[in-house]
């Protein structure tokens, strides 16, 4: 009570007499490098802004920081730095990098006061370098067979490298991390696993590969929670898609990959699902030149309770925002991920502080928006061109990717089958764009012709898919709900 009193008094004065000026509070002394700012910058910036940390300059000393003060303020106010494209921070995710408003205010006060040093004798010591791998020695370390030469200048380069993982029994991957001899040019890496069966199947590249996440500058290896692991069948290869960014100096780059496995088969099996499936390959992704807000949506009804442990998004450069929301059966919604300004370079995995429990009947909805206008500075084509699904970074793709577990392991089969039905629905144009066919097909299920599909009328195989459109939660799906849902005009 006592501690609150002064502010209550101040607030009361303002309310009583709005014409009196606010009580003059002495401004707090501007923070200095030695008092507060140095420690803050070390904690929030130095993991990358140090020699070999991946960022283009160090921010370890007052001199480093004072020289960059103005740009630092710009990028922290615009939330470009530290890189953390998600709208939510530590209230939702572990190891969140998002600065708080008061941290931004502190940096602002310091820059506007002329970036003072304070007492040099009290300057904080630069943080000591972590061990080479943040998770300790990897269980297995593999590397590119030979170095790849990145020229001093020119366009960014995206290249695939296939490396045998070299394990001859089935394993479960709990964490992955990378190191390279040229941190300044390795901007980000996407990881895929190709099992011997998948290789033998000779299907297109994208279908053979199971994506297991990505790495971007400054990312630390992070174990999957709950002792979970990505299944790695014996004899699998790891496929890396590496984004190289020329740094002004020619580099022969070797990327090394650290792999950490679970000690034994995880007690709970990872349930991985993507919305839309297969990075949107079958979702009708076709973005007209000049369209500034082309939208890709998908939704999946969770038929049994699950816990979501992490989420990330993948798309290329024309994407402008990505988001996923869970609509619970009780009518409430929970944000899962919101990236209001998509950054191709910072595809981070977001691990929830607490796994998010989604009861049976929850509808998980994803949305990716693409800006294929000339105003999008990341548009690879000027003037803009029609862009379709493809593997090149000048093509597009997109999906929200979830790592989850069944609350009751006995539901794992039901969940897997329901997701498989969703994948098929997408592949047949049932979900996503071009869904008119599906609306017509569904009309055929409406035996009594009343414009409403009851659960009895729905074929068992598609029941969960169809119930994913039950927006008013009455256990039935009207053609109106179906049309709105499929055309992405859902009002939610
Ligand atoms: C995860 C690694 C990482 C962290 C943490 C990080 N940066 Fe950066 N920073 C980078 C990289 C990499 C670049 C180069 C530009 C790019 O690739 O986006 C950069 C660029 C910058 C730039 C130059 C931007 C420009 O447009 O010229 C400034 C200024 C900056 N960072 C300030 C900060 C500050 C201040 C913090 C902490 C509050 C911070 N950074 C935290 C990686 C990081």
Notable traits:
Jelly Rolls, single chain, 492 residues, alpha+beta, 20% helix, four-stranded antiparallel beta sheet
Distance between the termini: 42 Å
Strand content: 25-35%
Radius of gyration: 26 Å
Number of strands: 22
Helical residue percent?
10-25%
How would you state the average pLDDT, rounded? 88
CATH class of the largest domain: Mainly Beta
Number of domains: 3
Quick overview of this protein structure:
20% of the residues lie in helices and 27% in strands. The protein has helices at residues 5-16, 37-44, 62-67, 69-77, 101-112, 196-200, 205-208, 412-427, 436-443, 460-467, 479-486; strands at residues 140-143, 148-150, 157-164, 171-180, 186-194, 210-216, 230-232, 237-244, 251-253, 255-261, 271-275, 286-287, 294-301, 306-315, 319-327, 333-339, 350-358, 363-370, 387-388, 398-406, 452-453, 477-478.
Chart the SSEs and their pairings.
Elements: H1 5-16, H2 37-44, H3 62-67, H4 69-77, H5 101-112, E1 140-143, E2 148-150, E3 157-164, E4 171-180, E5 186-194, H6 196-200, H7 205-208, E6 210-216, E7 230-232, E8 237-244, E9 251-253, E10 255-261, E11 271-275, E12 286-287, E13 294-301, E14 306-315, E15 319-327, E16 333-339, E17 350-358, E18 363-370, E19 387-388, E20 398-406, H8 412-427, H9 436-443, E21 452-453, H10 460-467, E22 477-478, H11 479-486
Antiparallel strand pairs: 1-10, 2-9, 3-8, 4-7, 4-10, 5-6, 5-8, 11-20, 12-19, 13-18, 14-17, 14-20, 15-16, 15-18, 21-22
Bound molecules: heme C.
The site of heme C has 20 residues, from helix 4.
């Amino acid at each position: 009570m006592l501690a609150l009193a002064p502010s209550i008094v101040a607030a009361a004065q303002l309310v009583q007499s709005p014409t009196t000026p606010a009580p003059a509070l002495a401004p707090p002394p501007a923070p200095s490098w030695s008092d507060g700012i140095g420690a803050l910058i070390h904690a929030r910036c130095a993991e990358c802004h140090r020699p070999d940390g991946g960022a283009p300059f160090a921010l370890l000393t007052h001199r480093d920081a004072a020289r960059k003060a103005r740009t630092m303020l710009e990028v922290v106010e615009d939330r470009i730095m530290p890189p953390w494209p998600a709208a939510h921070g530590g209230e939702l995710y572990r190891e969140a990098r998002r600065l708080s408003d008061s941290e931004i205010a502190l940096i602002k006060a310091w820059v506007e006061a002329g970036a003072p040093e304070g007492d040099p004798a009290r300057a904080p010591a630069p943080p000591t370098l972590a061990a080479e791998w943040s998770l300790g020695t990897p269980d297995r370390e593999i590397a590119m067979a030979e170095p790849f030469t990145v020229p001093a200048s020119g366009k960014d380069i995206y290249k695939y490298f296939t490396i045998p993982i070299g394990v001859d029994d089935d394993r479960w991957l709990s964490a992955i991390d990378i190191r390279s001899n040229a941190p300044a040019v390795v901007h980000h890496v996407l990881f895929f696993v190709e099992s011997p069966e998948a290789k033998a199947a000779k299907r297109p590249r994208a279908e053979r590969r199971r994506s297991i996440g990505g790495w971007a500058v400054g990312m630390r290896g992070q174990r999957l929670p709950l002792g979970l692991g990505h299944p790695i069948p014996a004899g699998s290869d790891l496929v890396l898609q590496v984004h190289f960014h020329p740094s002004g100096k020619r580099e022969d780059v070797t990327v090394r990959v650290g792999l950490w496995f679970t000690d034994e088969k995880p007690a709970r099996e990872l349930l991985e699902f993507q919305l839309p499936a297969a990075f949107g390959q079958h979702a009708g992704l076709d973005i007209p030149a000049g369209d500034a807000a082309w939208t890709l949506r998908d939704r999946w009804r969770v038929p049994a309770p699950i816990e979501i442990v992490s989420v990330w998004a993948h798309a290329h450069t024309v994407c402008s925002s990505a988001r996923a929301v869970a609509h619970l059966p009780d009518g409430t919604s929970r944000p899962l991920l919101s990236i209001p300004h998509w950054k191709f370079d910072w595809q981070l995995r977001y691990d929830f502080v607490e796994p998010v429990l989604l009861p049976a009947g929850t509808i998980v909805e994803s949305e990716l928006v693409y800006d294929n206008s000339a105003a999008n500075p990341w548009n690879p084509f000027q003037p803009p061109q029609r862009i379709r699904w493809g593997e090149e970074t000048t093509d597009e793709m997109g999906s929200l990717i979830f790592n989850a577990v069944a609350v009751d392991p006995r539901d794992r089969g039901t969940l897997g089958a329901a997701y498989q039905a969703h994948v098929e629905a997408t592949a047949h144009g049932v979900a996503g764009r071009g869904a008119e066919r599906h609306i017509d097909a569904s009309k055929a299920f409406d035996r009594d012709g009343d414009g409403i599909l009851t659960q009895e009328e729905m074929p068992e195989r598609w029941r969960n898919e169809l119930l994913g459109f039950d927006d008013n939660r009455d256990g039935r799906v009207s053609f109106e709900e179906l049309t709105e849902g499929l055309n992405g005009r859902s009002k939610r």
